[in-house]
Every structure is written in C-alpha cells, then in structure tokens.
Fold these 2 entries.
Entry 1:
Amino acid sequence: MKILIINCGSSSLKYRLIEADTEDVIVKGQFERIGIDGGHFTYKQKNGGSLERNAYIPDHEEAVRLLVRILTDPDMGDLESLDEIEAIGHRIVHGGNKFTDAVVLTPQVLKEIEACSNLAPNHNPVNLHGIRACMKYMPKTKMVGVFDTAFHSTLPEEAYLYGIPYEYYKNEQIRRYGFHGMSHQYVSEETARILGVNPSELKVITCHLGNGASITAVKNGKSVDTSMGYTPLEGIIMGTRSGSIDPEIINVISENDHKTLSQVMDILHTKSGIYGLSDYLSPDMRDLTAAYHKGNPNAIRAIKAYVYQIVKYIGAYTTAMGGTDAITFTAGIGENSSLVRSLVCQRLSVFGITIDETANENGNDERIISTPDSRVKVLVIPTNEELSICRQTKALIQE
Ligand code: ADP
C-alpha cells in the first residue's frame, strides 16, 4: 500500500512516497522557496536516482502539479498511475480543541480546520493550500489530515489550563495545546519498542530539541504534559525563540526601547533563545558547540542556560508522572549533540541516571546511551514525523 505524505510550510512543500506495509521510502524530496526567487525542487529515489531543478515555483498548487507530473513520468517516475496511491497523509499544524486524532478530509472537515486557523495563522492556511491543490490534481485519492496538536489532546485540564480568568478558555479556547505531537508520539512508541515494553506500561520524557524545541511527559502512551503551549513560543529556550518568560518583560522592553508590541514579539521569536543569549553569536548549536570548546563565554552562557531549562522540565515531568522509566532525545540537537545530552544527564544524577559516554559520543542511529545500572534509561532516537503520518493514515483508512 503506497501512501504519499505532504508537509507544506509557508514557502516549501516536502513530500515522501512510502510503501506503508514495509515502511520503505520509495521517493522523497521537496520544493523550496515557493513564491520567491531561487525556487528549487528535488526528487530522490530509493534506488539512488535523483533529479534537481532550479525553477520559479509560483505557489503550492504548481508544486503539486509538478510533483504529480514527475511521479508519473514514463522515464523518471515511480508510479505508472496515480491510482497506485492509496491515500495522502497531510501534516496539519493545529487541530484546536476539535481534532484529537487523524481525520479523513472532507469539505466539511476542511471548513472546520479553517476555523482553527486563528490559532495557527502562519501554518494552517498554507496546510490547506496544499490539501486543496492535491484534491485538484488527485481528485480520486483519499486524503487524511494528521495534526501536530492531536497527540497532546490527552493533557489533563490541570496541565492545559493557564492561570488566567477561566472565561478566556471558555470563550477563546486559550489553553496549552502543545506541538511536535507526531515526533513525541513516534519517539515514545519507538522507546517502548526498543526497551521491549508495551507503550501502555511506560513513562517516558521525550525531548524534541531542534530549532524549535519541546519536552513532553508521555505516561502509558499518552501525552500528559508538554512544554509548548498556546503557541510554539512557550517552554524551553530554543534556537531563536525565548521560551517562557515573565510576561511583564514585554511591557518593559516596549516602554524602555519604544517598540511596538509586534516588534517586541519579533524579538522573542527571532532574536532570543540561544542566539540572543550568546549575544548573537549564532542560533546554531554546531557553531555554539565549537565556540564552547574554545572557552567562548557567550557560547558557554547560552549552552548552560539551555541545558538548565531542559533539566528543570525533566525534573518537573518526573514528578508529574510519579517517576520516569526513560528519557529520549530527538531532533537536530537531541540526535546530534553529545555535549548537550552529556551536560543534561550529569545534572540528573540525583535520579540515579548515568550515561555511557562512549555510547553517547558514537553512533548516528537509535540507541540506548545509559549504563546498564542506570535507574532511568536514556535513549537517542532519530525522529521520523513522516513515518508517524504514514502509520496514522494507514491505520485510519484500514478502520
Ligand atoms: P528544525 O526545528 O528546524 O527541524 P532541526 O531538528 O533540524 O531543526 O535541528 C536544528 C538544530 O540541530 C540546529 O541548532 C543545529 O545546529 C543542530 N544540530 C544539527 N547537527 C548537529 C550536530 N552535529 N551537533 C550539534 N548540533 C547539531
């Protein structure tokens, strides 16, 4: 059964055609710089074949049209006919309170997703463009929406409510939603598989540390707390995002520096995090790591603060779940930064956690990096959001 995965960003469309029964990737690639100069398109096949083109791609509809053409191209394509695609799984960022699971996309469902757009104005509309373009060029194919927020729909009320007047929740649905749901779900299930236990018997803290970063407490297969909130700005320090701060700081910067509210918010989104903390040395952990090893005080300050916040969330979530069996690191920094993992785990020795530095330093693949006698297992698992979308799409169409 072949499933096509579509992930639309504001100026990109990433795709992956997966043989869902074996989970083999048949072909993957992306369209970049959609609607802006310097458009670029890649098509990378399982057998090593590939195609790259520079071309202006005016919009997502044109990207889908080109994708359909190349997929069924007699020379280069991987499909004889579009009928071979059983379903398309679309990534959708925000499902609001409404969508707590993957859903078959019908005109009525699209209207309801549109209604959640105010919760993710930069993401949901562009996700919908991609869906509509696929419906135009592949009208006979079943479409499924998989939501970033859905995995966190199991948060208990005490974890998702903010300490503001309840009317804001009742009238405007202001609550913690959480993000990176597919990644947290995928790595928590993989953690259970690697440890040889059922997800329903595992307490795991998943640390998705990329440019955006969030930490989730997964108890018995369900998300019970997560660090991102109403938007992906809340939580730990990120690449350029501040994470949680005292809201009064917004007032103070606005008044002292004569900045508008949107200018201050821009600082919190694009000039903060490890970038701002390192005095604008870099938002990229690779650069900061190199500088850290040379003793650069800006890099040391940023990395220490970053690590400290991760440790605080792990401590809090261990308490929230009444203990934890495992901690799993994923995404760009979680998968690749042995420095961050090592510094985090050193501060967790109070929980009886010890890591094997050789396993921590070596390997790119999924692995256990804690010592056999560590009370809590520590793992590194590369995330695979596309596979998570594929599994959820397959499960839904087979129901
Ligand atoms: P996004 O949220 O954009 O998907 P990624 O998951 O790709 O982000 O993570 C990007 C982050 O991962 C960057 O800070 C980058 O420096 C970091 N990273 C990637 N490779 C390494 C590495 N080898 N060592 C340390 N950090 C790395």
Entry 2:
Amino acid sequence: MSNKRTNLNGRDFIVVGGAGYIGSHVCKVISEHGGRPITFDNLSTGHAHAVKWGPFENVDVRHGANLDAAFAKYPEAKIVIHLASSIEVGIGEKHPAEFYDNNVTGALALLNAMRRAEATHVVFSSTCATYGETENMPLLETEPQNPVSTYGKTKLAIEHMIQSFHTAYGLNYVTLRYFNACGADASGDIGEEHDPETHLIPLAITSALGQRGKMKIFGTNYDTPDGTCIRDYIHVSDIALAHIDTIAAFDRGLDTAEVNIGTGIGVSNLEILKTIEKISGRPLPYISAPRRAGDLSKLYADPRKAKITIGFSPKHSDLRNIIQTAWNFHSKAPRN
Ligand code: UDP
C-alpha cells in the first residue's frame, strides 16, 4: 500500500514495553508493515489487552536470566526497541531509587542480554527532558543536555550507556528524543491509559467528559502569547512510524543517531483546551493554578535532523486529529 514506509518481510522485532502506550502503537505499525512484534513487558504499567499483534513474554527488564530465556525463543530478532521505563516525573522526584532501578539498571540488564543474544541494533525511547532548561527554540539535537528531572537524568544516563556500548561492542543504535506524545490509534482500541494520569490532554478530555473536576492550568502568566506554556505535541501513531523509519534506516546501513521526534510546532495549553471544546462540543472551564516546578515556558523541536537521518516526518499530528483520536479513545467505555 502506498502509505507503507517499508516491507518488514515477516521479520521479528523485540519491543520491550510493548504493552504500554507508545509500545502498543509501535507493535501495531510493525505488524501493519509486515513484521512480527514480540512484546517483552512485566505489565507493571502496561496492559495485557494492548498486546494484540504478536507473542507476549512476561519478563521484567531488570532480570537477566529471564531476558536470556525470552531472547532464546526469538533468535532471528536482531533489532530491539526499548520503551520500558518509569515516566511520571513527580514520582521520579519522590522515588529516585525506583527510577534508577527500573530505567538505568533495566537498560543495562537489557543491553547485556542483547549482547549475549547477539542482537545488533537498539532503538531507544528518550525524551526532550534530557535537554533541561534552555531558551533556544526550536531545540536542536546539539543543544547541551542538562536535565532537570530525575526522569530526564535516567534517560540521559541510558543514552550515555548506549553510546559506550556502541564504542566498545559495536552496538548500533538510534535514540529517539520524543516531545509530547499524545493522541490514540484511529481504531480507538489503544490509547493513553496511565495511572496516575498527569498529562494535559487526557486530563482535559476526562474533565470535559465529566469524569473528574475542573482542569487546573499550571501557570497563566508565562511570557507566551496567551500566558500558558507551549509544547510540541506529536501523535503517538507518528512516534510509532518513526520506529519503522528507524528500522528502514538501519537496513540502509545507519549505525548511530540521536534525533528529535516532534513536529516543530508549538501549541499552548489554552489552545489545547479550546480545541477540545471545539471537537467535543462541551465547555471546558479551567482554574488558573500556580506554575508547576520544572516546567519550561516553551519547548518545541527542530525536526529537520529526523527527516534527514531517518526520513521521518509526521503525518498524523494535526492538532484536530490528535484531539479527535484522543477523544474517541477516552469516550469509549472503560477497559478492563
Ligand atoms: N498541565 C496543566 N495542567 C495539568 C497537567 C499539565 O496545566 O493538569 C500543563 C503543564 O504544566 C505543561 C503542559 O500542560 O505546561 C504539558 O504538560 P504534560 O504533563 O502533559 O507534559 P510535559 O510537557 O510535562 O511532558
């Protein structure tokens, strides 16, 4: 089909964290492009009902022996997509031990298991939170990385670990630094299901649905056109397709890259609320709340390197489509 990026010809791909929000969308597009996604996940935050496109291995990323047993079942899988991690920024500040264990210890155990299994390539889910505080927008990959949050620090530690494994052991890698993941698959079957939920769009939609109280907007006096923070919202289906583009780039011989995955377009918190009101036809009143610690006023990507290096450009990230797909997902009956 013309909208397919490449043909994965029945190949196996290990998707660590494949039961999660982004991971389940990655598994779906791998399957749509003719590959077989193998989900490794311990279901600590992922959902069994989101594993639909290939085998499932219930394995904790920190447990080397269990990883070895799981890898042994799929000896043809040479590319590993690593998305499993603790992501809730506030929890990372309260429980850094948990974050370093899940994220950094987990990544080390995974990379070592990959070496034993002779897997050759890793695609790593990193984040714009590795850059830290800066006024330099749009953000280039060359911006110094100086993360503020424990979450960002753990992701940067893993980026460094992967770079060392490349230098010493020849591991090929692409690090994808996602901006704000959002939206849901067009089917409405998979989407954002975090517990606790802290992200703007799902909170605002559930607020408009009457499932929670009024939205609080953290900071309405920033130095931005409407006073609220600006972010770069990239549809989860586009993030998933960036992984297909990365696989195709590996197949063409790419050995290493760090790239931003964003749209390059900044959208304010109030624009998000207005779009939800428009799409849903429901009022979405909000309360002005104090600024949230660590929030930058503006954060948006320079997306050019992703286009040049892996051939990625977003197709699904029009704001109306983001909100419509997220709305469809959240307005369906609760899942198990
Ligand atoms: N935000 C908000 N109210 C909320 C949750 C988020 O005003 O209940 C704001 C937050 O301060 C930031 C933007 O929405 O300006 C995006 O936050 P989110 O947590 O979704 O993603 P982040 O950019 O922190 O990764």
